[in-house]
Amino acid sequence: MKIVVLSGGFCTERHVGLVSGSGVCRALREKGHQAIFVDMFMGLEDYEGDLATIFDAPDGLLSHAAIETVAPDLEAVRAARKDKSPSVIGKDVLTVCAMADIVFLAMHGANGEDGRIQATLDLLGVPYTGSDYLSSGMAMDKAVTKRMMDSLGIRTAPWHDVYYTEADIPALVEKLEVPCAVKVVNGGSSIGVALPDTKEELDKALRDLLHFGGHVVVEKKIYGREINVAVLGDTYLPGVEIIPKGEYFDYESKYQKGGAVEICPAPITEEEQRQLGEMAVRLHKGLGLDVYSRADFILDQDGNGWCLEINTLPGMTPTSLVPQEAAAVGISYGDLCEKIVLDSLAVRKAERV
Predict the structure, then answer these.
(1) Were both Cys, which of 20, 147, 194, 334 would link to 106 (CB 3.0–4.6 Å)?
(2) Residue 37: which domain range?
């Protein structure tokens, strides 16, 4: 098949997406597909060949990608693009997507995971991987997801949906309990997250996170083990336990070598795995998600799972959590990438009937 692996984009999780996309593109090419790697934001402004034969590019347009210790400077990213238009979709991106049999969405965060690129491809009649635009947008919004957890009976920490300005901070600091977690409503990769233990830290967190906008979810901090559980199709996979080397599983711990220990399958009981897995599947289906997702949990000392959030386009490097879980049940990385493509094609076909 002709496959565009769409990656990068213009968001704080840009580097993560580029690495995921590179891995997916290589894997699909090794499976015999005509896969090409396209950065949604940068587009094909440096491509000098004929678009008609772009899927025959011998290297799949692949280039080196790595995740730095800090999130990308988006102003520097914008300055690096020759096309200075306000569009977040680069030169010829939609043209080559329309030429493909399917677009593999190897993107994270804003513009990729929030439903906007899915809606764009829907309007073009182009099939893509994963969930549709509405389900993606709902899952990206932490407040909407929290409401869905509550309605589905999925255990999650007590929380507040907070819209605020700088003038509201003193009253919020007085009202909100600590310790807590403060999360930008549409953030990811632990960007836009603060974990204050004191009122002073809460004040600083609220002021710092205004940089991302004035909408956050504030939830009671739950202590325990971090377990991530993937859903593939209609079933859950063995969980992964994350043990960060530092105090918290932050951006650097997630993506830098040695930042955390990842144990798959997680050393938990069968009952604990079943509990977390069933919650992951219930949330996946409740939000109307398709093909695959990954839910993140805290398992407390009493063996109770607390759901944190769900990811519709989780990391897809060969060593990411979902590929690890798939490998635990005998599904290789290449087979996983291809399964996501084939299952997504079936879903998109069913949507158009």
Answers:
(1) 20
(2) 2-130
Compute CA 229 distance to the chain's CA centroid, rounded to the nearest angstrom: 13
E strand residue ranges, the chain:
2-7, 34-39, 102-106, 159-163, 180-184, 193-194, 215-220, 225-232, 235-236, 240-244, 260-263, 292-299, 305-311
Instruction: State how far the Cα of 29 lies from the Cα of 336, in Å rounded to an integer.
Output: 13
Residue 318 lies in a domain: no
> 74-106, pLDDT tens digit by residue?
888 889 899 889 999 999 999 999 999 999 999
Q: What 3-state class would DSSP assign to 120?
A: helix
At residue 214, the 3 state secondary structure works out as coil
Backbone angles phi, psi at 15, to 5 degrees: -65, -40
DSSP string, 139-166: HH-HHHHHHHHHHHT-----EEEEE--G
> In angstroms, rounded to a whole number, what is the distance separating the alpha carbons of residues 236 and 293?
9
350: in domain: no
Tokens of 28: 């699909």
Residues 249 and 148 in one domain: yes
Residues of the chain with pLDDT under 70: 64-71, 188-190, 246-259, 353
Q: What is the distance between the alpha carbons of residues 257 and 100, in angstroms, rounded to a whole number? A: 35
Give CA torsion, residues 304, 307, 313, 319, to 10 deg.
-30
In tens, the pLDDT along 144-181 reads 999 999 999 999 999 999 999 999 999 999 999 999 99
- Predicted pLDDT at 58: 87
Distance CA 185, CA 305 (A): 22
Q: What is the pTM of this model?
A: 0.91
Instruction: Determine what percent of the chain falls in helix, strand and coil, rounding each to the nearest 5.
Output: 40, 20, 40
CB 19 within 8 A of CB 67: yes
Q: What is the pLDDT of residue 65?
A: 62
Per the CB < 8 A criterion, the answer to whether 279 and 299 are in contact is no
What pLDDT is attached to residue 107?
92
Question: Would residue 333 count as lying in a domain?
Answer: no
pLDDT at residue number 111? 83
Q: How many domains does the chain have?
A: 3
- CATH label of the domain that carries residue 10: 3.40.50.20
